[in-house]
Amino acid sequence: EVQLVESGGGLVQPGGSLRLSCAASGFSFTNYEMNWVRQAPGKGLEWVSYISSSDGTIDYADSVKGRFTISGDSAKNSLYLQMNSLRAEDTAVYYCARDSKLHYYDTTGQRWPHDVFDIWGQGTMVTVSS
Amino acid sequence: DIQMTQSPSSLSASVGDRVTITCRASQTITNYLNWYQQKPGKAPKLLIYAASSLQSGVPSRFSGSGSGTDFTLTISSLQPEDFATYYCQQTFSTPRCFGQGTKLEIK
User: Fold this and answer.
1) Strands (E), chain A
2) Does residue A80 contact residue A73 with C-beta atoms inside 8 Å?
3) What is the pLDDT of residues A106-118, one digit of tens each?
């Protein structure tokens, strides 16, 4: 079964650090681009970070740039998010999500790849509070 | 960065109703637009990609349309399991941001 399982969330004080893990099964995460998405309590979805194992591309939302680091371990088939200098506004459920390419065929028959977040973990809660 | 704006923010409807949710991008995204459904305490689920393509396994009462900057998600006949929050997402450029969500509630 294709699935993602996050772990590592918890309660941390402002200024502290936490490392989230996302274990992939049923597929090799190095064959896909992977993302972290978070959702503050009662709020919407916010994309946090992205990694492409194929070309090494990494990107972050401005709100976490310089504080969070995304990485992966192919041997463990796992994705990580190192979170430093945590703030109250980082309190959220953190999801890892697989980024797949589904194809759209236009009226001429030309094929266009579209990125979708097709597999999501169950989420892990991070609470930043003193 | 591209901004995504959904309307309405919340919507009350009854089982069997036809419902439409709108998503507007701050600049053109051609058809690089996805729709997700999220139920309380659960991860989002992909419904529609490329603005109008139905993800495998999603009921045909869900449909999407639009291109450029304006998009719609339509549920043709609401079922009890459809009451949830819906998000649009643009994948035309990074960051691949989401709309703020539309909460669909039972009337």
Assistant:
1) 3-7, 10-12, 18-25, 33-39, 45-52, 58-60, 68-73, 78-83, 92-105, 111-120, 124-128
2) yes
3) 889 999 899 999 9
Asked if B46 lies within 8 A of A118 by C-beta distance, the reply is yes
Q: Taking an 8 Å Cβ-Cβ cutoff, which residues of chain A contact chain B?
A: 35, 44-47, 50, 59, 61, 95, 97, 102, 104, 112, 114-118, 120-123
**Omega before B40 within 30 of 0, i.e. cis:** no
DSSP 8-state symbol, A41: T
Which residues have a Cβ under 8 Å from the Cβ of B83 and sit 6 or more positions away? B104, B105, B106
Closest-CA distance of chain B to residue A73, Å: 24
Give the 3-state DSSP-derived string for B36-97, with helices as H, strands as E and coil as C. EEECCCCCCEEEEECCCEECCCCCCCEEEEEECCEEEEEECCCCHHHCCEEEEEECCCCCCC
From B51's Cα to the closest Cα of chain A, the distance in A is 10
Nearest Cα of chain B lies from the Cα of A100 at a distance, in angstroms, of 11
pLDDT in tens, B55-102: 999 999 999 999 999 999 999 999 999 999 999 999 999 899 999 999
Q: Please list every residue in chain B whose beta carbon sits closer than 8 Å to the beta carbon of residue A61.
A: 95
